[in-house]
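pinned: reference chain
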Amino acid sequence: MAAPRAVLLLSGKRKSGKDFVAERIRSRLGPDTCTVLRLSGPLKEQYAKEHGLDFQRLLDASAYKETYRQDMIRWGEEKRRADPGFFCRTAVEGAAQPVWVVSDTRRLSDVEYFRGVYGDVVQTVRVVATEETRKRRNWVFVAGVDDSESECGLDQGVAFDWVIANDGDERSLDEQLETLLRSLHDRL
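pinned: its structure tokens
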């Protein structure tokens, strides 16, 4: 695995469009230059194995995943307490592109891990959307989920390098992403 030249750590609330923004970045840079990594992938895979669940169904935005979300959060927190970098290390295995976009950075320990291992190539990106926009994307507040560390862990303590507003205005989103991507070109 070659060391990345840029690592973008995306964070944001549920239904803010983190995956959408990550895929837009990968699309603009191309799959040979950019890969999207998900910390939740290794978490969900291990959780599915240990609990006899359908891993593929835990990856989508289904009611199936929502049924297990709270217990998965609890289980993931236990794993992180034992080894804060476990899911981060697992997510980057095999990544060979020069730009990594981590689409679901949720905790300060995630940011600290990537900064500690990859240093100055790491940039934090907060994806924001109004509550109204998130509701249009079928977000509904769920106690124990939307007020947990997995949703609020980066609300404080991080000075984001970039804040991307993703409220459905394609032109505005493209302009913001263009500025971010221009800043990466010197690293590539």
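why pinned: Strands lie at 6-11, 34-37, 99-102, 122-128, 162-165. Residues 68 and 147 are 16 Å apart (CA to CA).
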